[in-house]
């Protein structure tokens, strides 16, 4: 399952360790290349209008897509959000794009939730990372 995307209200009210509030974790990966990343950057409209509930449902659904690897998300209090989802191949990206509930959520996004957005789909050819005390994982430098 992917991380919960914090809403603007949650970001301003969130204190680490609070019960009932999501912990911020990440980043996910690295993964064995090649794979694909879908970068969704958006500027939100004011108000929730069902966004939080829908975002949680999308997290549940994308996790069921064969080839979904994980996702990282961040949002500023001003409404700028970035989500990077990782998929094993283009078939997995297309399966997510074409999922009926995701199509409906994208429609609502265009109509209600986003002032503007951009989607980038990229093939990842190199991936590495480091965790303090664990060394470099993947094809690092």
Word description of this protein:
By secondary structure, the protein is of the alpha+beta class. Helices cover 29% and strands 32% of the residues. It is built from four helices and six strands, in the order αβαββααβββ. It has helices at residues 8-13, 51-62, 90-98, 100-113, and strands at 35-44, 68-75, 80-87, 114-124, 128-131, 135-138. The strands form two sheets. A four-stranded antiparallel beta sheet has the order 2-3-1-4. It has a two-stranded antiparallel sheet with strand order 5-6. α2 (51-62) packs antiparallel against α4 (100-113). The two termini are 29 Å apart.
Helix and strand arrangement:
Blueprint: H1 8-13, E1 35-44, H2 51-62, E2 68-75, E3 80-87, H3 90-98, H4 100-113, E4 114-124, E5 128-131, E6 135-138
Antiparallel strand pairs: 1-3, 1-4, 2-3, 5-6
Keywords:
single chain, 141 residues, alpha+beta, four-stranded antiparallel beta sheet, two-stranded antiparallel ribbon, 6 strands, 29% helix, globular
- Tally of helical runs: 4
Radius of gyration: 16 Å
Coarse morphology: globular
Count of DSSP strands? 6
Strand order of the largest sheet: 2-3-1-4
Low-pLDDT runs: 1-23
Helix content: 25-40%
Nutshell version of this structure?
This protein is 29% helix and 32% strand.
């Amino acid at each position: 399952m992917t991380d919960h995307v914090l809403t603007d209200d949650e970001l301003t009210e969130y204190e680490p360790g609070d019960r009932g509030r999501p912990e911020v974790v990440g980043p996910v990966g690295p993964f064995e290349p090649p794979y694909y990343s879908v970068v969704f950057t958006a500027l939100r409209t004011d108000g929730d209008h069902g966004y939080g509930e829908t975002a949680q449902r999308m997290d549940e659904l994308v996790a069921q897509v064969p080839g979904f690897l994980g996702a990282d998300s961040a949002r500023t209090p001003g409404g700028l959000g970035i989500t990077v989802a990782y998929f094993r191949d283009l078939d997995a990206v297309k399966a997510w794009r074409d999922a009926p509930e995701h199509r409906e959520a994208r429609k609502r996004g265009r109509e209600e939730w986003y002032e503007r957005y951009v989607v980038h789909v990229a093939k990842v050819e190199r991936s590495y990372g480091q965790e303090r005390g664990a060394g470099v994982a993947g094809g690092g430098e």
